[in-house]
Amino acid sequence: MNILAIESSCDETAAAVLSGDPKNPEKSRKKLESSVVVSQIDIFKSYGGVIPEIAARSHLEAILPVIDKALSDAGKTWDDIDAIAVTHTPGLLGSLLIGTLTARTLAILHHKPLYPIHHLKSHIYACWLEENAVPTFPLLALVISGGHTQIIRMTKHNDFKIIGTTRDDAIGECFDKVAKILGLPYPGGPSISKIAKTGDPKKYRLPHPKLTSDPRTQNPNNPAHNPELDFSFSGLKTAVLRKAQEIAKVPISTPSYELKNLLTETQKADLAASFEKTAIDILLENLEKSLTLYPDTKSIVFAGGVAANNRLRESVNFPANISINFPALKFAGDNAAMVASAAFYEIASGIKPSNPYSLDILPRSVIK
Ligand code: KG4
Ligand code: ZN
């Protein structure tokens, strides 16, 4: 079976072709035939962040050439394609619309079954593109992206229980905001990592959040949710701002955009390194807590753009009987190969395709 997947949830337009036999998912080898990603980062660098309207227009320009290239790189024609998969939730409304409407139209035109895919599910399934080291169940997936920070327990394919989540900012968003304070280009994660390499991660002490487990913080719709495993990153972002003001010896009323001109390169590097270390320590502390609550865990899966972070990859240290699964660097950020991988396991689990005439997009939704 050849799956053509499309991704356009934020600021990357992507398409990929994956082949394999979902009737025999454990034994057959999947093969990624092609993966094309066109990023809008260069457009948004000058704005310091994504402008949804511009992102949607750029997707519109790129989407058909990207799909054509994915097909031709794979050496396939429409006759060879057996299914279409597309990210339809969550993400930016206009961006999701372009990918989803394109996929719907192509599914109708070429008479192909259409599989709508949840974006976080595809980030998790990026780790199943690593044929030689796929995760084992039960597992804990740490989803760390620009919009999400969650710990998800999976006991089998397509079974997701959110056990911890952020109460405010996502970790990637926090990297992006701290980068802005330090005057570093968008996206903040790679920019922070780059200058943090030359900084001292122990130079500045930054706080770890102290979350209450007040019963009101329990998600009433999700009995698996444990408020003690929640995250909070907005306080860390403010702590970096206050520390930057303190180092620059200016009052706390000083606007954040002035700080980049008041800090030396060494101060910026030390602050970036201290922030990066604190953010990663917070992630790993929560994962350790989760492991004690779920001692049957066999794998830990890292998913989402922040999983590209080098310090995180180097800091991970769990018992040897637990496999650690990171996506390949090229599949940590948004791409369509991971969408195809998620669709492959949906098809393998017998999940039915959707109606291409009515499939809707959902800018916000919980993984199910
Ligand atoms: O998964 P992703 O590509 O898009 C979303 O689904 O949000 O994640 C994007 C986020 C951005 O916030 C970006 O700053 C962050 O991932 N990121 C990183 C790194 N590379 C990307 N954060 C930390 N270190 C990195 N190396
Ligand atoms: Zn993403």
Q: Biggest β-sheet: count, sense, barrel?
A: 5 strands, mixed
SSE succession = EEEHHEHEHEEEHHHHHEHEH
Helix proportion = 25-40%
Proportion of β residues? 15-25%
* Secondary structure category: alpha/beta
Put simply, the count of helices is 11
Q: From the alpha-carbon coordinates, what is the Rg to the nearest angstrom?
A: 21 Å
Q: What is bound: which ligands?
A: 5'-O-[(R)-(carboxyoxy)(hydroxy)phosphoryl]adenosine, zinc ion
| Mean pLDDT level | 97
Distance between the termini: 25 Å
Question: Which oligomeric state applies?
Answer: single chain
Q: Count the strands?
A: 10
Global morphology:
globular
Strand order of the largest sheet: 3-2-1-4-5
Give the low-confidence spans.
Answer: none
Description of the molecule:
With 368 residues, the protein is an alpha/beta fold. Helix content is 38%, strand content 16%. It has helices at residues 41-45, 52-74, 93-110, 119-125, 171-181, 188-196, 234-247, 256-259, 265-293, 310-315, 337-348; strands at residues 2-7, 12-19, 31-39, 83-89, 114-118, 139-144, 149-154, 161-165, 299-303, 323-325. The protein has a five-stranded mixed β-sheet, with helices on both faces. The chain has a five-stranded mixed β-sheet with strand order 8-7-6-9-10, with helices on both faces. Helix 4 crosses helix 11 (337-348) and helix 5 packs antiparallel against helix 9 (265-293). The radius of gyration is 21 Å and the shape is globular. The protein starts with a strand and ends in a 20-residue tail after the last helix. Residues 119, 123, 145, 304-305, 334 line the site of zinc ion (ZN).
